[in-house]
Amino acid sequence: MSQIFFLFSGQCFFFTCHPYKYHFIKENKTWDEAQKYCREKHTDLATVYDMTDMERLRYSKEKQEAVWIGLRSNPETDNRTWHWSLPGVDLSVYSTETQEPSKTFHVITNALCWPEAQNYCREHHTDLVSGLNQLHDTDLKNKIQSQSMLWIGLFRDTWRWSDGSNSSFRNWNLELFKDDDSKKCAKCAMLNGKWDSDDYRFVLIKKKKTWEDALYYCRENYNDLASITNLKEQRWIQQKAKNASTAFVWLGLRYTCTLEFWFWVSDEVVGYKNWASGGRNDECDMSGGMERGGEHKWSSQPDNNTYNFICSTF
């Protein structure tokens, strides 16, 4: 099966097809676009089954910053599903005639949260205790008799692989990852192999364009220039703006001289506002830009200025 990865945040790379190798696509795509491309041209976005796969990806020839992988969360529609931390272990299967080799169990007395415990076990041993066979192991039972409470390798989440596989392998970067509803697609950092999540509603375009050219670019290649209708969207977009190469990024915010009001090009009402103090200028040929840094406030900018810009993807 061809395994396909897409680079995150608009940088480029190439790909070649070969079983059990990761292939890089030299196109700037959102997660949805990447999934569609892989399904049309190959099989699907890549699934990472275990640390062996992860190391194979990490030490591939293409040392990119980060790539899309085929892991996605849909908390609005999917229930949280239970998984064992150790890859390949069935959730509720127990066999008294197991052919597994004898295992050595280590009781770690450090007080850690569950993700830290999982990370510790993977770095120093194999994984957290996973599966009913391990839980029923006599050696394990003898070692934990004096312990009142211990973590085991059982977790649940709403993350699913694009190809429908049941891989429970996760390799989150504990310093960055937050399992919240705003970030629904997984990306892999190529330098350390750790994963983070990102939203796929907005994309930063690191091209310098006037407001009108930015509008046409977004409508031709994505959906539209980005609109901000609430605080959550403001936070999503300001995270994108931090990586801009210009002092401001264009938004889909425009002033109409004829009707004398500001409007979003997506026809959304300008209810939520985040103007900088003294930053709003109600004059002709003005459009809205967001600061790259600071508090990421909005301000009126002459629409013939050239800035990076934020596109909405749907």
Order of SSEs: EEHEHEEHHHEEEEEHEHEEEEE
At the fourth level of CATH, the homologous superfamily of the largest domain is Mannose-Binding Protein A, subunit A
Instruction: Report the strand count.
Output: 16
Portion in helices: 10-25%
Biggest beta-sheet profile: 7 strands, mixed
Q: SS-based structural class?
A: alpha+beta
Oligomer state equals: single chain
Low-confidence stretches: 1-19
CATH C-level class of the largest domain: Alpha Beta
Identify the CATH architecture of the largest domain: Roll
Number of helices: 7
Principal-axes shape call: elongated
Report on the architecture of this protein.
This is C-type lectin domain-containing protein. It holds the Pfam family Lectin_C. It comes from Dicentrarchus labrax. This protein folds into three domains: 3-79 and 159-198, Mannose-Binding Protein A, Chain A; 81-155, no CATH class; 202-312, Mannose-Binding Protein A, subunit A (Mannose-Binding Protein A, Chain A), CATH 3.10.100. It is built from seven helices and 16 strands. The strands form three sheets. Strands 1, 2, 3, 4, 7, 8 and 9 form a seven-stranded mixed beta sheet that branches. Strands 10, 11, 12, 13, 14, 15 and 16 form a seven-stranded mixed beta sheet that branches. Strands 5-6 form a two-stranded antiparallel ribbon. It has helices at 31-41, 51-58, 114-124, 132-135, 138-143, 211-221, 231-241; strands at residues 3-7, 22-25, 44-45, 66-73, 81-84, 154-157, 159-161, 185-189, 195-198, 202-209, 224-225, 248-256, 261-264, 286-291, 298-302, 307-312. With 314 residues, the chain is α+β, with helices and mostly antiparallel strands. The chain is elongated.
